[in-house]
Amino acid sequence: MSFKIGIDVGGTFTDFLLVDEEGNPKIYKILSTPDDPSVAVMTGLGEMAKEKGISLSSFLNNVVIIVHGTTVTTNAVLTGRVAKTGLLTTKGVRDALEMRRGIREELYNNRYLPPPPLVPRYLRVPVEERVDYSGKIVKQIVLQDVDKGIDLFEAEGVEAVAICFMHAYANTENETRASELVAQRLPGAYLSVSSEILPQIRFYDRVSTTVLNSAVGPLLRDYLTALTGKLKSEGFSGILLIMQSNGGVTSPETVMGLAASTLLSGPAAAPVAGATYAGLHGETNFITIDMGGTSFDAALVKDSKPIVTTNGKINRYALALPMMEINTIGAGGGSIAWIDEGGLLRMGPQSAGARPGPACYGLGGSEPTCSDANLILGYLNAEYFAGGKMKLDRSAAEQAIRSKIADPLGMSIEEAAYGMFHVMNVNMASAIREISVQRGYDPREFLLVCAGGAGPIHAAMIAMELEIPRILIPKESSIFCAAGMLLSDLKHDFVGTYHVLLSKESMDEARLLALVKKLREDGEVVLSKENIPPEDRAFFYSMDLRYVGQYHEVNVAVPHEELLELRLQAIKERFHQEHDRLYGYSLKEEGREIEMVNVRMTAIGTTQKPRFKREAYQGKDPVACLRGQRQVFVPSERSFLSINVYDGDRMGYGHQLKGPAIIEQVNTTIFIPPQYEVECDEYGSYLLTLV
Question: Around 413, how many Cα atoms within 13 Å sit in the side-chain half-sphere?
């Protein structure tokens, strides 16, 4: 029998979804090993093999594909533990990395300083050269400057080099000559060249993205080299794919050269998975939330299309590669409760992580966390956490909450625990408002798709904060992103700059068509290297457009035929409509001219997806799945009530119940307040509806 595996390495747990050729899923969760994430990956694979009663080598011989999302690059940027990087850049602009866009992020906060640049000034080496905006070489590169930079990098033990020259997107010659010299003299250094990483206009975005790529490149390369080596030594000969921030997957070889494309590797799978699970219910508009042990991710999907942005930030560093628009906050099961200087209760963003973890894990943690509060409130079962593999220490949770929160605030332990629970819910609801209300969407009109091991405990309370009437909790919610990885296609993004007025008088039709042709050719080359047959390839085009005088562009999808036939009026109409949708107005009636900045192309290689297995109808009454009752805090009653606890792993298609209730699965727990009723669909997922 053959298998497919999705793997999502998180800050606290590493999640696995094993799917056999008949579509039967099996969930596994292993505590992450931050020092070497591959240890947890191999441990999880070993657990699968042990359960099958065969050796790891025999098991991996039957695995046809592994799709892997990683937080190696994300955690490196968040913690500042990136590779030592040197930058070669045009003389006169070496400080652009520190000056950024020259716009204060918090306009009225004089104390809000920019983050320290990833490359210190002494490792930012100016090179005499100049290319103008049209691509004309005004000043040939002085290679002696490059040599001096290489000498410095070598003496300083630099692990990675970034090269970013002014207007290199218009003419790559000077960057190419510099990169050839660096590759020759520093063959072991990781090298990023802006004209290869991001050949588009806007210098700060380009230099920041190129530096980010170099800063995380050696870490990702070393990790993937170690992982592929371990897999190969154990007999794995199948396909290994890596999840990217744009919601697609690619080969390890490709992603090693574009390491920055994995900076949202794990969370990007959630909207992909959401589209499949929501689609089973005919829903095209939904919000995905993923609450794990460390973070909370929220993404809005409209018309089954996740929102992709090229104006992203990672730890406040600009990243202009296409990435899913996901709002991430420090809110997870391990989020630490603390009291600020004003005496207010706060939750996160600090996390207890996998080790030492929450106090109740009994691994040495002493800080009160969200999981500790959930245990005190009865949402978690101390004897059945992780299916009984891990016993929770209630007395340790009580001690942590009492000493750090309850006593300082003059509360009982239960009051403090509920306060922690409520603050967490409000924080997560606020994160959803940022991607919905603040962008003109009413969250009440969207289905809430909940994921993450900790998410189902909080989902209904978050939905009530936002008045969302319907919630979908997939059976595989605890490893939702791992499932999303198996549902993802290969995806590559390409961009070319052509800054011109959108009019036949101004545009050079031959230049535009040549640019479109090159983007298509680049996409064909990459997909062919990944052995995607022509019939499984698809190409989608868009333009970055703006009204003359604007600074920011609007990305507008444009059919290929409109581009080839240069149907400018149709393209303009698409821009007016999209601008009006995003900002509530357009300047169509004023006749304001439109200019094009970039042409983009996304190449898709369709992959085979695992089948969803339908369950047999089990009737409406889940009484056979009733485990018993326990005392659980019900927020609407402001008190503990004895409520029914059901075995979620035995529940199935047709089962219905009304809150308050608890549904326990091996890898997650669902709290259903009195305001909601729940029904199991034919795929085993839970649909909660506001009564």
Answer: 19
Per the domain annotation, does 393 fall within a domain? no
Residues 454 and 519 in one domain: no
Within a domain: 382: no
Q: What is the pLDDT of residue 437?
A: 87
CATH code of the domain covering residue 319: 3.30.420
Model confidence over 416-475: pLDDT tens digits? 999 999 999 999 999 999 888 887 789 999 999 998 888 999 999 999 999 999 999 998
- Pick the closest to residue 579 from 539, 537, 611, 550 (CA basis): 550
Whether the pTM exceeds 0.85: the reply is: no
Q: Are residues 115 and 184 in the same domain?
A: yes
pLDDT value of residue 20: 86
d(CA 215, CA 209): 10
Containing domain of residue 285, as a range? 269-332+448-485
> What separation in angstroms does the CA of 432 have from each of 27, 332, 408, 444?
27, 15, 31, 11
- Burial 464-495, CB ≥16 within 10 A → b, else e: bbbebbbbbbbbbbbbbbbbbbbbbbbbbbbb
Which amino acid makes up residue 324? M
- Evaluate the omega torsion of the peptide bond into residue 660 and state whether it is cis, within 30 degrees of 0: yes
34-68 pLDDT per residue, tens: 788 889 999 999 999 999 999 999 999 999 999 99
Statement to judge: residues 152 and 278 lie in one domain: no
Over range 172-179, report the average pLDDT. 96
Q: 378 with 371: CB under 8 angstroms?
A: no
Count of CB atoms within 10 A of residue 510's CB?
8
pLDDT tens-place string over residues 84-138? 999 999 999 999 998 988 777 888 888 888 889 999 999 999 999 999 999 999 9
Based on the domain organization, do 454 and 308 belong to the same domain? yes
Residue 471, sorted as left (phi over 0), alpha (psi -120 to 50) or beta, turns out to be: beta
pLDDT in tens, 524-579: 999 998 889 999 999 999 999 999 999 889 999 999 999 999 999 999 999 999 99
202 and 87 in a common domain: yes
- Looking at the fold, whether 172 and 279 belong to one and the same domain comes out as no
- Phi, then psi, of 192 in degrees rounded to 5: -125, 130
3-state secondary structure of 469: coil
Q: What is the 3-state secondary structure (H, E, C) of 154-172?
A: HHHCCCEEEEECCCCCCCC
